[in-house]
Structures are given as structure tokens and as C-alpha cells.
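ok, trying the design again with the full structure, not the truncated one.
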């Protein structure tokens, strides 16, 4: 991932970073799957991978009876900033070389306040 040294508009840079993150996450999932499936791949030239299993308890809120699930005293409203990136429609713009085709929903991130 080589970055162009010319400054970019923050909106454009954010869209490009999200494209790169999606590609990195896809590659990570592929490698993780291969490493879990084949123990012979777990020792590389510089790194070793250890695979272990963990478990955790999960609360199944859908199993609650409706009178509890819908009780307004048990709910709290929280707000968060939602940053969506959408490609602009510019008549004179040429498509970027190698630009990924993406769905607007994939570019939506929720930023929870601290």
C-alpha cells in the first residue's frame, strides 16, 4: 500500500482507507482459515502462529419473554456519530484506476462516544 504524497481531501482519503481495510480483512480471513485448517502452515520464516480455542457465554436476548424484552424501563437510548462515505456524481470525473466497486452500506461506520 503505497500512498501518493500529494495531500488528499479527508473524505477521499477516508473512502480509500476503507477500501484498503476491506481488502486487508478479506486477506486476513483467508490466511486465518488456512492456518486453522493446516497445522503445517503455522511456522513461517519470521513468525509462528498458535491456534487455540476459547469459549464465552452469550446472552440470548431473543429468548426473553416479550413482556420483558419490550419493557421500556430496561432500555436506554444512546447516540453515536455515523460517518458514511458516498462517491460523488461529477460529470467530468474519470473513474479512478483500480477503484473498488462498493455498496454504500459497506462504507457505514458507527463511532461510539467514549
Amino acid at each position: 500500500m503505497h500512498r501518493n504524497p500529494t495531500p488528499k481531501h479527508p473524505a477521499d482519503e477516508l473512502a480509500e482507507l476503507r477500501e484498503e481495510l476491506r481488502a486487508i480483512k478479506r486477506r486476513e480471513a483467508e490466511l486465518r482459515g488456512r492456518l486453522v485448517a493446516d497445522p503445517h502452515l503455522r511456522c513461517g520464516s519470521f513468525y509462528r502462529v498458535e491456534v487455540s480455542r476459547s469459549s464465552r457465554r452469550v446472552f440470548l436476548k431473543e429468548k426473553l419473554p416479550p413482556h420483558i424484552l419490550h419493557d421500556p424501563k430496561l432500555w436506554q437510548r444512546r447516540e453515536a456519530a455515523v460517518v458514511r462515505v458516498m462517491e460523488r456524481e461529477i460529470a467530468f470525473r474519470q473513474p479512478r484506476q483500480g477503484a473498488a466497486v462498493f455498496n454504500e452500506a459497506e462504507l457505514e461506520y458507527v463511532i461510539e462516544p467514549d
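Keeping the full-length input from now on. Helices lie at 10-37, 66-69.
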